[in-house]
From TrEMBL:
Enzyme Commission number, as recorded: 2.4.2.19
Family: Belongs to the NadC/ModD family.
Superkingdom of the organism of origin: Bacteria
Ranges where the Quinolinate phosphoribosyl transferase N-terminal domain occurs: 23-99
Keyword Transferase: yes
Name this polypeptide is given: nicotinate-nucleotide diphosphorylase (carboxylating)
Taxon lineage: Bacteria, Pseudomonadati, Campylobacterota, Epsilonproteobacteria, Campylobacterales
GO molecular function, one term: nicotinate-nucleotide diphosphorylase (carboxylating) activity
Amino acid sequence: MMEEFVKATLEQDVGRGDLYALVEPSVAATARIIAKSDGVTAGVEYINTLAKLEDFEINWNVHDGESFSKGDTLANISGTSHVLLRIERTLLNMLLHASSIATLTKKYAQIVEPYGVKLLDTRKTRPLLRVFEKYATRCGGAVNHRMGLDDSLMIKDTHLKTIEDLKLYIKKARNKIPFTAKIEVEAESFEMAKEAFEAGADIVMCDNMTPDQIREVVKYRDDNFSHILLEASGNISLQTIESYAKTGVDAISSGSLIHQANWIDLSMKMD
């Protein structure tokens, strides 16, 4: 899947061929990837795949998940001029996109780490980029939530509108879904969370609740259903995530890790 993604990304940029290569013959060339801002590295695995496909050599000074500073040389590249100039934008786009997500994710992860709370991403990803973007959040310190609808059964507010008896539905679901698949129920109030506990959910998501509301749910869980995991979600930002981490939940999920990530600044310089 990674190789197919890299090939398609390069083909989109190259089209029928790089017109530059029609003018002059190819010569030996070297280049450097330079950081023009601080960040966290992600994308190394994809770019290594690009190097194998396009037959150039890249030597990294950083690895996925490692931080870098403005002015650092992230990698040294060698090959032919035609190849290096052809892959420049594809390489930078993948590195920039992934590293920008990892950079923001790391900021979130560092806040929740002291509280022993797992940071989760969501399915709010760009079309056809889910695997790539979730790989980037892992590089930044997050744990992947569901990759898709087939990973686990999440019963959201929209699903609940179609379910008359949640306990009966979950009982039926246990006989339909894989034995190892978990069932998660979204709750927007203490009453809904209590219903989800009693119905037999494996995970209860406290969605769009205040930290005070979640603390009430946590206490009830701890006293009555200590085996059930609790997740907080909904409008979680860098400014608010610590208040949620202090509530006692097991995990916090945020789509912001991906859709609020602003691109950092990297460039390739030919020697």
